[in-house]
What does this fold into?
Amino acid sequence: MNSVHAYLEYSNDNFNLCVDIHMNGKDSLILYGPSGSGKTTILKLLLGLLHPSQGSIRIGEQVLLDTNSHISQPAHQRKIGYVPQDYKLFPHLSVMKNLTYGMPRPLTYDHADFLNLITDTLNITNLEERNVLSLSGGEMQRVAIARALAIKPNLLLLDEPSSSLDLELRMSVRNLIKQLHEEFKIPTIIVTHDQQEALALGTQMHVLQNGEIIESGEPNQVLGQPEKIPTASSIDIENIFEATVTSRDATNGITVCQYHDLNVEIPLYDIAIGDNINIGIKASDIIVATEKPSNISARNVFEVKVTKIYNGRSGIMLECYAGASHFSVQITKSALDELAILEGQTLYLLFKASSCFMLKP
It folds into this structure.
């Protein structure tokens, strides 16, 4: 399996990009970040559709680009499969002619066998003679992936692979991409805004902001408890607040911090008493109770008043205050109904110390 290394510098108008990417042959790398952060630009630089001011690209032992040595393979020689957001299928051609476009004729037996394997795996054999304009969104997606695989790529690039599909098709495409990655063992880079897609498909993740990688790691770690404030903001961690360290308990692995009038317990970090730090906690990690609980393991229990209730992207959101201390909490619609929570009501919030994480600037 081929490893991938790419160092890329690129400037255009007021946008500057500088990234260093390392992948082993088993990696499925997620590029995550807001629009304009550089995700699709990286794909185009890898493909040779854009040209970096400085950089190098190596896949296995093959050097595709080295600006210092004046090496730059043209896009059609790089053997990189690409599935753009809008698929870019040729509307005047059949599915099979889309798959074989640009291939030498006649096809070799090996290539024909590989093509048959792809169409069987993607379940599109029955679509081969159809015009692509007659296909559904899910069928077009599978044909676009098949075309990218047909060249036997050394690297596969997927740009927002399920963004235009409904929920059911999105889940199907994710399962398909995972299956293809495991079966064909091609290093893959996936651009996505979707956290669930990143968790389902990625083995590694880079978070981009303004053309730079601001945080890297396994998706469940980066999305669950990021290390930096810009990352936490970009992945919509709902609670980020500043607090002052008041005590440290090395025996029990606890740090106590003052958040306005509240003493919040978080894991033990290498910080000093008196330090001002930023703390993050996901709204979904906070539990709600209508009565003060007792005999529980959660280290943080606070009485709050609900000031606002509204529909969020992933559930019902409660905005709560304990004095000047603010918390956003996510619950289900059924929990809201069963607990009969209303604006102005007093509740108790519970969360574990381990649900909290310190954020660096």
Summary: The chain has a mean pLDDT of 93.
